[in-house]
Amino acid sequence: MCSQQAVHVAMTLDFPYLRGTMAAIFSILQHSSCPENIRFHFISSPSSTHLHETITSSFPYLRSQIYSFDTNPVSGLISTSIRSALDSPLNYARNYLANILPPCVQKVVYLDSDLVLVDDIASLAATPLGTGTVLAAPEYCNANFTTYFTPTFWSNPMLSLTFSGRNACYFNTGVMVIDLERWREGDYTTKIVEWMELQKRMRIYELGSLPPFLLVFAGNIAAVDHKWNQHGLGGDNFRGRCRNLHPGPVSLLHWSGKGKPWVRLDANKPCPLDALWAPYDLLRTPFALES
């Protein structure tokens, strides 16, 4: 698990998203030019570590490790957001990867469980981070960045100046390449936690675990081609409406948002793009097969 030549992938593991995780793993392996070179690091709550057996039995040659994430410390830092699923403590495990993963792991690709790859993950992992940059992710500078924070945040000069001198753009934290050595050296977990602690005292954002990442990293990340995160396929966070692909090539499809493909397929109410996820669904129910 300490190989520096390997592609290290970190994902969370819990029951509601198990089907998504399995599909993501299958897609990664299927499109990898060297699947035996991939190391999977799964983070789960103490009550869900048994789910690792489902993965190892389905992928017997998978090189993987399960890590138990103590959710109690972060539970007290979570503020309610616009969607209850975003308030799961495990959703914040990405903040602590540098502490959870072995110190020998220097670089990791973090992936959400509601996505599939149709390209070689080694290409994503090879994203150059440049000098001193901690993480890389696709940026979306056309998004209205101000909407991710409350009027309380923008009306406070001490807070709004956080982005002074930074070309801060939205990026989706479901797909990131992270230099864990630089993260540890800069103690970025503490920086994120400090913003979460402030949020508990005065509400400065609305959307789960994303805004603290934006506060710390927006404007200071390495760019990744948009093809590596065709996000938003789950629709908005309220209604989960069907959406189309963004223009351009596709290497990764991401069902971020309220609607998850396995839920819509089981309800026999799929969106058109859910058909692109279905071939990777290893845990489909008999009912879904018959329908």
Task: Give a written overview of the molecule.
With 291 residues, the chain is an alpha/beta fold. Helix content is 30%, strand content 15%. It contains 13 helices and eleven strands. The protein has a seven-stranded mixed β-sheet with strand order 3-2-1-4-9-6-10. It has a two-stranded antiparallel sheet with strand order 5-11. A two-stranded antiparallel ribbon has the order 7-8. Helix 9 packs across helix 10 (210-217). The chain is globular and about 55 Å long. The model has no long low-confidence stretch (mean pLDDT 92). Keywords: Glycoprotein, Glycosyltransferase, Membrane, Signal-anchor, Transferase, Transmembrane, Transmembrane helix. It is a single-pass type II membrane protein. One of its GO terms (cellular component) is Golgi apparatus. This is Hexosyltransferase. Its EC number is 2.4.1.-.
